[in-house]
Amino acid sequence: MKYLVVLIIFILDRITKELAERGYFSKINVDFFLSFFLTHNYGVAFGIEFTRRIIIIFNLIALIVLIILYKRYEFLGLAFILGGLLGNLYDRVFYGYVIDFIHLKNFFVFNLADLFITLGGVLVFFKLIK
């Protein structure tokens, strides 16, 4: 039960990425702020480029640290980050890139895993300053 949130985030991320790859979101467009645009991100955040091997190594280190922290603190924000990290790490290992498809106007293209990583980071930040 402890890792149920992590598993749900991972599964939702995988499902939405698979649907995006199959073109299910391509016809949805909310012109003024949201559209769906499939892209394959070979870099990291904001398209910054590193070699695939380095990215995977850093992701694995982050995964180990997050598992240790989550075992100790069981905080929802850490579960969000862990679930998102697993979703993007899966893409990197099995495809060599991360599947992105959510596009907010005047912003980068991202995915559900990125959203949960960001929400988790915000929750952790507020927990730390409390």
Q: Mind explaining what this structure looks like?
A:
A 4-stranded antiparallel β-sheet has the order 1-2-3-4. The chain is globular, with a radius of gyration of 15 Å. A hairpin with a 3-residue loop joins β1 (29-30) and β2. The two termini are 27 Å apart. The protein is built from 4 helices and 4 strands, in the order αββααββα. The mean pLDDT is 90. By secondary structure, the protein is α+β, with helices and mostly antiparallel strands. The longest helix is centred in the middle third of the chain and has 22 residues, at 52-73. α3 runs antiparallel to α4 (112-129). It has helices spanning 4-21, 52-73, 76-94, 112-129; strands at residues 29-30, 34-41, 98-104, 109-110.
Q: How large is the share of residues in beta strands?
A: 5-15%
Report mean pLDDT, rounded to a whole number: 90
Q: Outline, from the CA principal axes?
A: globular
User: How many helices in DSSP terms?
Assistant: 4
| Helix content percent band | 55-70%
Give the low-pLDDT segments: none
> What is the H/E order?
HEEHHEEH
How many E strands?
4
Main-sheet strand order equals 1-2-3-4
What oligomeric arrangement do these chains adopt?
A: single chain
Q: What Rg, in angstroms, do the CA atoms define?
A: 15 Å
The SS-based structural class is: alpha+beta
Largest sheet: 4 strands, antiparallel
| Separation, N- and C-terminal Cα atoms | 27 Å
